[in-house]
């Protein structure tokens, strides 16, 4: 790294990361040509780069993958957590190779290009990760230009002028704009995604009042979960279906009245990008009313943070965050350790939990809060991702616990 004002672009460099302080890391660009500004984070998962790139919680972020072989299994139509990638770009060690996998439909670099996402390869990602660990997640510009023409000083200025994720509400940008019925169960090799027959095809059995089949037969008696989408990962909804719920998804901006119109047995609060405190401005009043109405609530990640905010706790920005697929979490009720998937840069401040909020899970990496339960309501949430995608499935029991509790 060196000063952008005095730096020259090394021969053969077609991609660069430029930091707000003027330093730069060069490599080879792939995917889309152009530039993007955001927060640089790292993810330690060894599989699941397509799920990571399409997780809407990565909006506003550029992901450094610590696993060196990214792109080697290409991309497919199934391993997506949303219709498009939301991470702005990624930084990888090895150049992306020809895909080698029976499920591949499109090479990773081409998929990145088609989706307007910038990649940078040939980077010492270990050094970059250590730097993020030491100094915290920096604001950067990632740029790709096949001719190697970069105005480094201008890019450094752009990184410096970016306001950062703190105080930024991104859920409003990535949430589904319309309410919809969820129609998939979980994926199985040789079968693909299970079809949630009762919710498919439209018109539906579910929705307001529980309903029944349009022909008047076979009422759908499964508990009805109304899920508020702050930038949700699809696999959360698939797991709710697997656990026995029918699911209606509402936009982040749904009012309390719109939630209740759906006649929910329980309300689910999804993951999502950005600062929970900024998102909470419109979401928290709705969640408070849902709690007052004694509706059972389950939240994941951003949903966890917003349940905590609604209960009167505070959230804080973390130094470098947690992103990976092997994070150990201790369940406080019995000391059992769950290996979990994580992706968060903010956390619930455990020192601010009101008396009626009991911590239920804690990170074994840094002791940060990973779960809460309201002692006077049927409401709980976790900071990590029981839906995996990518990652272990140790924590599926949380979906079962929620759905069983609605019957
Ligand atoms: N995956 C998530 O829901 C992330 C929540 C929040 N945006 C954070 O970074 O902490």
TrEMBL record:
Binding site for L-glutamine: 57, 272, 274, 302, 305, 343, 345-346
Pathway annotation from the record: Pyrimidine metabolism; UMP biosynthesis via de novo pathway; (S)-dihydroorotate from bicarbonate: step 1/3; Amino-acid biosynthesis; L-arginine biosynthesis; carbamoyl phosphate from bicarbonate: step 1/1
Chain intervals for the UniProt region annotation (CPSase): 1-223
SMART domains: CPSase_sm_chain
Enzyme class: ligase
Region (Disordered): 199-220
Similarity comment text for this entry: Belongs to the CarA family.
Stored HAMAP family: CPSase_S_chain
Protein's name in the database: Carbamoyl phosphate synthase small chain
Species of the source: Sphingobium agri
Source taxonomy: Bacteria, Pseudomonadati, Pseudomonadota, Alphaproteobacteria, Sphingomonadales
């Amino acid at each position: 790294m060196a000063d952008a004002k005095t730096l020259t672009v090394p021969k053969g460099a077609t991609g660069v990361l430029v930091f707000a302080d003027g330093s730069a890391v060069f490599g080879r660009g792939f995917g889309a040509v152009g530039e993007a500004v955001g927060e640089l984070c790292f993810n330690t998962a060894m599989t699941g780069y397509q799920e990571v790139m399409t997780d809407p919680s990565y909006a506003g972020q550029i992901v450094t993958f610590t696993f060196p072989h990214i792109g080697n299994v290409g991309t497919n139509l199934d391993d997506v957590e949303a219709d498009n990638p939301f991470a702005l770009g990624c930084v990888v060690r090895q150049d992306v190779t020809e895909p080698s996998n029976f499920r591949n439909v499109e090479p990773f670099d081409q998929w990145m290009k088609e989706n307007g996402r910038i990649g940078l390869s040939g980077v010492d990602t270990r050094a970059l990760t250590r730097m993020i660990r030491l100094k915290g997640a920096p604001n950067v510009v990632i740029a790709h230009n096949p001719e190697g023409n970069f105005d480094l000083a201008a890019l450094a200025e752009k990184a410096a002028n970016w306001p950062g994720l703190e105080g930024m509400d991104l859920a409003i940008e990535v949430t589904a704009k319309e309410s919809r019925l969820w129609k998939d169960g979980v994926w199985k090799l040789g079968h693909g995604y299970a079809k949630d027959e009762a919710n498919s095809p439209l018109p539906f059995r579910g929705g307001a009042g529980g309903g029944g089949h349009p022909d008047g037969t076979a009422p759908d008696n499964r508990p009805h979960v109304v899920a508020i989408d702050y930038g949700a990962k699809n696999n959360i909804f698939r797991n709710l279906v697997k656990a026995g719920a029918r699911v209606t998804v509402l936009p982040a901006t749904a009012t309390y009245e719109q939630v209740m119109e759906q006649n929910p047995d329980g309300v689910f609060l999804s993951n999502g990008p950005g600062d929970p405190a900024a998102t909470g401005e419109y979401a928290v009043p709705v969640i408070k009313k849902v709690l007052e109405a004694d509706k059972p609530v389950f939240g994941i990640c951003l949903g966890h943070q917003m349940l905590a905010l609604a209960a009167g706790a505070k959230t804080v920005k973390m130094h470098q965050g947690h992103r990976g697929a092997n994070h150990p979490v201790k369940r406080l009720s019995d000391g059992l350790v769950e290996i979990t998937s994580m992706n968060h840069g903010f956390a619930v401040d455990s020192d601010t939990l009101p008396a009626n909020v009991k911590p239920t899970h804690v990170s074994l990496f840094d002791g940060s809060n990973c779960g809460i339960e309201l002692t006077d309501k049927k409401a709980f949430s976790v900071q990590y991702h029981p839906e995996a995608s990518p990652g272990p499935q140790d924590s599926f029991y949380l979906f079962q616990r929620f759905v069983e509790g609605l019957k």
